Amino acid sequence: MRGRAPAREVERLPVEVHVSAEAASRELAAEIAALMRARAAVGRMAVVGLPTGSSPVFLYRELVRLHREDGLSFANLVTFNLDEYYGLPREHPQSYWRFMHEHLFLHVDSRAEQVHIPDGNVPRARVEEWCRDYERRIVAAGGIDLQVLGIGRTGHIGFNEPGSARNSRTRLVTLDALTRRDAARHFPSETSVPCHAITMGVGTILEAGKIVLLAWGDAKASIVAGAVEGGATEKLPASLLQGHPDVRVLLDRSAAAELTRYRDSRAGER
Ligand code: F6R
After folding, report:
1. Is the pTM above the cut of 0.90?
2. Has 161 been annotated as catalytic?
């Protein structure tokens, strides 16, 4: 249409559309490996923030492959996970502690003291103190160099559900009903999905040097379009990434389908 702004100008976050989730994940794994090797070369640690869920599965698979086949050492990687269900024992099949160990840490040369995952079993009376300490540990590690994120269908990053403040910190939160419904496929029933979680805050995430958000599949397409093209609002926490100077959104074609650049090109399709 004449006089109309090119579609990409409506995008408020830098987007990369990849041919597949695997291809995008391979590139991100190579970027993380390069960061680790560059730091190792000068005797320093790399600090990376990590999500769980289906979005980073290919990333962790590729990092394990780089360890096994290319000799990538994790000895100088410090990690901070975004979140953990509150009240699940570590050994529970759905705990994020277990997820991270099964997908990554058991297969590489990370030492336990390099790995930080929110503790979902801190007694209620000590949660706030525990969360403050998590923030202190991030600062003591030198801050997060690269934060990897997924996005939930509520627009959450970490477990910062709609309504989370831009300056929120690590804390105990209540999960949105949609988030619990989406998680129910991994639990025996919806009622067994925990109602609460400990999550890094939006403010904690925004302090990372670099942020990369991953989204695959058509179930994410509309929330991705909202986060990328809508205004920054606490109603859609991923949109708050618009305030960050070094953020990228990696999508496969299905997750990108609702962006204006594709919707416009489909407008003439039959
Ligand atoms: C998990 C996390 C969540 C997920 C999001 C997407 O640690 O922080 O924000 O990234 O719920 O989950 P998947 O990847 O399973 O679609």
Report:
1. yes
2. yes
